[in-house]
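Issue 218. Parser rejects a valid record. Input:
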Amino acid sequence: MATSFRLRVVTPERQLVDEDVEEVTAPGAAGEFGVLPDHIAFLTVLAPGRLVYKSGGRRTVLAIFGGYAEVVDNVMTVLADGAEPVAEIDAARAEAVLRDAQAQLAALDPSAPEAAIAKRAADESAARLAAVAQG
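Output the parser choked on:
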């Protein structure tokens, strides 16, 4: 029985993680899920939120902005639309962006193209703030 598995987190801009870990918790489209060594193979859509992994007794938190996760043969690959380590997040800026996006959403028709942009900004800022709160 394996005691760890490989975690790879990749965004269009960079590879954030490529290391052996003992546990991952991630935001799936149907709710939060966990992965342990020897996990069954699966593929899922990721929602904006926080991804937490444990490696060598150390807990690390990332903000994830959506994407896909695949688990196969003790390798979890996350293809994220975007992601940021907690250390790179400016919480005050995230709070300001969230407030502005929520104000825009309240003033816009939900079917307006601008509403989708404001919702994405709100979701990403909320993911950043959730990661900071856990980090």
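Fixed in the parser; the record now loads. Residues 5-86 form a domain with the ATP Synthase; domain 1 fold (CATH 2.60.15.10).
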